[in-house]
C-alpha cells in the first residue's frame, strides 16, 4: 500500500501535485529538511494518537513541539502517541513516511496552525524517501482536516 495508495489519492484528487521521490531517506525532520533544502519547520510531520477510544492524526510543522495541555483542550482527553505497529496498521504507511494521504483506515486529520507560517510545506508521501510540496491550506482541504492549535511556539534557533 503506502506510496501506491498516496499515488492513487493524488491521481484521483489532485493530479497536478507531483510526488517527490529521493534516493536518500527523509524519515526524520532533519533528514527531510536537508534532502529537500528547506528549513525544518517546512517539513510537515504527521503524528498518530489515541484519544479515549478514537485514533486521529495531527499534522504539524517539523520543528514544533506538541503542547500536552493544548492537546487535551482540543480533544477533550489526554492524547497518547500510538506505537509504530499500530501506526502502520491504521495508516498503511511506515513510520517516517506517515502522511494524511491515501490512508488504509479513514482517520480524522487535524492540522496544527503552526503550518500556516509557511506558504509551502513538505509532508511525507507514504514512504521514507517521498514527499509532496503543498500549500498547508490545500493539504487540509484535500484530507478534510480541521485546524487546531496544539503546538508550542517554535523556539528561534
TrEMBL record:
Transmembrane segments: none annotated. GO terms for molecular function: aminoacyl-tRNA deacylase activity. Pfam families: tRNA_edit. Residues 25-137 form the YbaK/aminoacyl-tRNA synthetase-associated domain. This is YbaK/aminoacyl-tRNA synthetase-associated domain-containing protein. It comes from Aquipseudomonas alcaligenes (Pseudomonas alcaligenes). The lineage of its organism: Bacteria, Pseudomonadati, Pseudomonadota, Gammaproteobacteria, Pseudomonadales.
Amino acid at each position: 500500500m503506502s506510496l501506491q495508495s498516496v499515488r492513487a489519492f493524488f491521481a484521483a484528487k489532485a493530479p497536478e501535485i507531483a510526488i517527490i521521490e529521493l534516493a536518500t531517506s527523509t524519515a526524520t525532520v532533519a533528514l527531510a529538511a536537508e534532502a529537500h533544502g528547506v528549513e525544518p519547520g517546512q517539513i510537515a510531520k504527521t503524528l498518530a494518537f489515541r484519544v479515549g477510544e478514537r485514533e486521529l492524526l495531527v499534522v504539524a510543522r517539523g520543528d514544533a513541539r506538541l503542547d500536552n495541555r493544548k492537546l487535551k483542550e482540543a480533544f477533550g482527553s489526554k492524547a497518547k502517541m500510538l506505537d509504530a505497529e499500530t501506526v502502520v496498521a491504521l495508516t498503511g504507511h511506515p513510520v517516517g513516511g506517515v502522511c494524511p494521504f491515501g490512508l488504509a483506515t479513514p482517520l480524522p486529520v487535524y492540522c496544527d496552525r503552526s503550518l500556516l507560517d509557511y506558504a509551502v510545506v513538505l509532508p511525507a508521501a507514504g514512504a521514507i524517501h517521498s514527499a509532496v510540496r503543498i500549500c498547508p491550506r490545500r493539504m487540509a482541504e484535500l484530507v478534510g482536516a480541521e485546524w487546531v492549535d496544539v503546538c508550542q511556539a517554535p523556539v528561534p534557533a
